[in-house]
Amino acid sequence: MPVLLRYCLESLWPPFLLSTGCVVFILNLLFYLELFLKYLLVYHAGIINSFLLLLYYQPSFLVLAVPIGFLIALLMVFGRLSADREALALESCGFSLWVLIWPMIGLGFMMSLFLVLFMDTILPWGNTSFLKLDYKIISEKSSIVVKERIFIKDFTGYVLYFDQKDDATGKLRNITVEMMDERGYPYRLVLAREGFLHQDLSNYHVILDLKEGFMQQVGTKKDPKLDTLMQMQFKNCALDLSGQHMSQGPIDFSAPINISMKELALRIQKEKSENKDTRYEETELHKKISIPFSALAFAFIAIPLGLMTRAGSILGPLLSLVLVTIYEGFILYGSAGGPMGVISPFMAMWLPNLFLGLVGFGLAYWLNHRWEFWNKITFRKRDRDKGPSGPQGMVPK
Question: What end-to-end distance do the CA atoms of the chain give, in Å?
């Protein structure tokens, strides 16, 4: 049997590496290509910085791509074993299919443990490194884009206008700031006599410090009623121009995705001692373990599905898409329901793994005992049709 197991492992790695690479490429194409081109062409970050940002972003993609690639590879390998009748030949020789299933389950478990370590160390490093370089680029870019008498739209949610700029000191005069809502309409106007643009070294945000000005607002950001006007004067005002910049990624260095599980567990313990609501943090803590263990859940369900459906090179990716969609639906429900208290944080993140694992285990058990399974059903039906004393319940004379 080591020969057959080695044959399966050698057949597994090529589609695994190819599938993982394709998933990473698709994720970059969907979620990062536009941002990469923006840094390269708009912010003039340079080739090195742009590719460094690309490198820092990859851990968040690999955590998702590795389990998906493992799922596709298992469906293709075991589907081919079934299509080529190799699984049938194995059973004909008197061997159980569990001889092939358990080693792959063990491989999925080892891969899940590796992904837990990866998500606890490499992913926070990638996120924080991305944030630091991103804010550094934005800060350097801000000194370039700040020009006199030009409307500046480089900061998400703001439109800036400066009447004068002192290149020697960086002081700005006669400043106009428009704050935009989600629809892109201005709802707040800020006017100041002078100001200064700098970077906050504690969080790498770009800050605009204003002096001697006033602020006008019509309605609110979510409810712009034209009959409501608010106006106030100020001596000093600081605007965080980077607050809305990372709309699709991590914003805060202390966010759960940017810290280790140990730090997050200590935060939960501290907040519980202060009687604070920790459902969101607990959900994120379970997510750091449950998502890596999706590789194990996919292994449980991919192996029997591949053997049952004979999922070759074409059907394998299609089945993977269906399973990933189901898994993602569970995750979205848990991510929303866990912090709201609709479902416990543990079940919110572990429910998809438990569901796929139990379904896969049931399919594997049926696959290994399918003849006994159908014989039991057939005999029970036959006995029920015969009745207590013969066919149709009739007593023979």
Answer: 58
Supply the pTM of this predicted model: 0.70
Question: CA 31, 208, 202: angle at the middle one, nearest 5?
Answer: 70
- C-alpha 351/C-alpha 146 separation (Å) is 50
3-state secondary structure of 207: strand
Q: What is the pLDDT of residues 278-287, one digit of tens each?
A: 999 999 999 9
DSSP track, 30-57: HHTHHHHHIIIIIS---HHHHHHHHHHH
pLDDT tens per residue, range 337-348: 999 889 999 999
Tell me the residue ranges of DSSP E strands in the chain. Answer: 158-165, 171-180, 186-200, 205-218, 229-240
Q: Where are the domains of the chain?
A: 2-136+254-379, 156-240
Q: What's the CA gap between 356 and 364, in Å, rounded?
A: 12
**Containing H/E element for 147?**
none
CA 315 to each of CA 74, 165, 302, 378: distance values in angstroms, whole numbers, following the listed order: 12, 62, 12, 31
Strand pairing partners for 229? Answer: 218
pLDDT tier for residue 396 given thresholds of 50, 70 and 90: very low
Contacts of 142 (CB under 8 A, 6+ apart): 154, 155, 197, 206, 241
* pLDDT reading at 122 higher than 60: yes
Instruction: Supply the angle between the helices 261-273 and 279-290 in degrees, to the nearest 10.
Output: 160
Return the residue matching tokens 């290149």.
167
Distance of CA 344 to the CA centre of its chain: 20
pLDDT digits (tens, 9 = 90+) for 131-142: 888 777 766 665
Give the pLDDT band of residue 246 (cuts 50, 70, 90): very low
Parallel, antiparallel or unpaired: strands 158-165 and 229-240? unpaired
Ramachandran quadrant class, 341 (left: phi over 0; alpha: psi -120 to 50; beta: rest): left
